[in-house]
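Late entry, adenosine-5'-diphosphate complex.
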Amino acid sequence: MPVAVSIQQLHKRFGELKALNGVDLKIAEGELFGLLGPNGAGKSTLIGIMAGLCRADSGVVTVMGKDVVRDAAASRRNLGVVPQELLFDPFFKVREVLQIQAGYFGVDRRHRAWIDELLESLGLADKADQNMRSLSGGMKRRVLIAQALVHKPRVLVLDEPTAGVDVDLRQILWSFVKRLHREGTTVLLTTHYLEEAEALCERIGIMNHGELVALDSRAGLMERYSHYQARMRLRGMGDNLPEPVTAALTRREGDTVWLQVAHNDDQLATILAALHEHQIQVLEIETAEQNLEDLFLELTQVKRS
Ligand code: ADP
Ligand code: MG
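Prediction complete; structure with ligand written out below:
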């Protein structure tokens, strides 16, 4: 698959703070990619650099092969960005906002039908002649999305599109994003909602403190990193537990140990064999599944450098 977005060794500091600390990422054409990370991870900074709103200290970003700095105009023609913040001139009407955007990209009159289609599919048709300031936050967000799509970009970037929106709007946005994806648009979506990345994205990158700490397919991430908790009550354990047990140990209280066990290897079997060998009896064993939420917490609690 040809590459739609390429990010190489991207660095950005704000004073002492490393907002981006060497991010490398390639997104294929047609992919629906999720960039997941807690607040302050650097997601919006990355998007600001893609959109040409902010300059990287070093590194290269291209959109459909066009460098966002050296070939800014060409890269922007291929890119639609829905920013996280709702910023509008309150005195424009919805349709005007879209027409101005179309004019900015030199979109000709024949494409004005596309504006109507966007208004329609985002449920904005009956708001087209209202002033921006009269719209609710959710409606403003829809206008932002329409605005990003006016010039039919091949790559759409949505920065936390559903932060603070109600459940209904979230569903509308999700199905709209899925439709764009089906129609071939490359989508990069940032979110701090696991549920969102899980529901929409084929591949997920997890960012924390300006670094990509994980990158895989959704299923792959789960499989590769997922652990589960095992609680065991043991008889006959002295102070020195066998190594496979101490390696997995997260807590010990009296005759009970809590272990963090990997899913996809034979770690549990190794632990049980070691206990048997040391004549430690397992009186009870109880396991709990780890979900994507736990995985996310685990990955984003990587120490700050
Ligand atoms: P995210 O979008 O993942 O929440 P941001 O990219 O907005 O993260 O922010 C990354 C870090 O950079 C944060 O610590 C934030 O406070 C800081 N930051 C972002 N923009 C600026 C700026 N213009 N000046 C100073 N610090 C900034
Ligand atoms: Mg952000």
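Residues 167-182 form the longest helix (16 residues). Will revisit in the morning.
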